[in-house]
């Protein structure tokens, strides 16, 4: 029973070796001579102008979340499009597939209108 999992174990060990070996070789072979210039912050050739931990506006996150939400919902259209030929071949499946997708697109449209009415897409 366990001999079936041996290739998986070998695969994991080889993957770990390929991931860890360059790090270990770099740590062992590279010279370690830190100085003030190497440890100083660097930003495009200049000293940093301000703290890197500035707060972002919440609208950036809101737009990103909305993009991911609608992008994932649109991704559900691709499986439907790939079987569209099969759906068109059967009379009962043709209407079912069409109305099922119209319900999905209607829910997507209602969500888009709701987000638009809430002002989440407005940028001041």
Secondary-structure blueprint of this entry?
Layout (H helix, E strand, L loop, with lengths): L5 H24 L6 H4 L18 H18 L1 H6 L1 H6 L1 H28 L6
Helix content: 55-70%
3D shape: flat
Mean pLDDT level = 84
Rounded to an integer in angstroms, the radius of gyration calculated over CA atoms is 27 Å
What series of H and E elements makes up the topology? Answer: HHHHHH
Task: Explain this structure.
The longest helix has 28 residues, at 91-118. The protein is mainly alpha-helical and 124 residues long. It is flat, with a radius of gyration of 27 Å. It is built from 6 helices and no strands. The chain has helices at 6-29, 36-39, 58-75, 77-82, 84-89, 91-118. It has 2 domains: 2-39, no CATH class; 58-118.
In a few lines, what is going on in this structure?
By secondary structure, the chain is mainly α.
List keywords for this structure.
0% strand; 2 domains; mainly alpha; 124 residues; flat
